[in-house]
Task: structure prediction
Amino acid sequence: MTEAHITVTNEHMRGLLISIPFLPGLKKTNSGTAKKLVVEKIVRHEGYNASSKTFLNDIALLKLKDEIVYEKSVRPVCLPPSEEKKHKKSSEKENTAFVIGWGADKPKHENPTDSLMQLKMEIGSRDDCNKSVQGHAGKVYPEQGLICAKSTEGK
Result:
C-alpha cells in the first residue's frame, strides 16, 4: 500500500525493484540489506484524481511479483476494526494515528530522508483542519473519509 500520487509521478515503478525491509531494525534506505521485490501491477483508488490539489482517495496498492515472507520486522498492515467493534467507547488509541516512511522531513524539502521517520498524530476535527489551512489551501477537508492530523512534529 502506498500513496497514489507517487505511482503517477513514478509510473516507471512497474517492473522495477522496490525495497522491502527484511532485517530487524532496518531504518536506513541505503543500508543495502533489504530484500528486493518486483512491482507487477499498480492499482490506484478509482476515485483518485491526479490533477486535483487535494489528497482525496490518494491511495494505491502495489501487487508484487513474488510473495512477501513475514517475519519479526515484516508484518501485514493493520486494518480498522469491523463495524460491530467500532461502537466501543472512544479511547486515546482511537484518537491517535502513526505515519511511518522515508518522505520529506520539512515543507518543500525535495530530497526525502534516507532514515525511517515516525510521527504520532492526534486526530482532530474537520474544523481543526480547515482552520489550520486558512490562507494556504482553502477548505480541503469537508469530504467524508479523511482525517485531520493535529500534530506537526515527528522523529
In short: The mean pLDDT is 69. The chain is about 10% helix and 25% strand. Helices lie at 4-9, 83-86, 126-132.
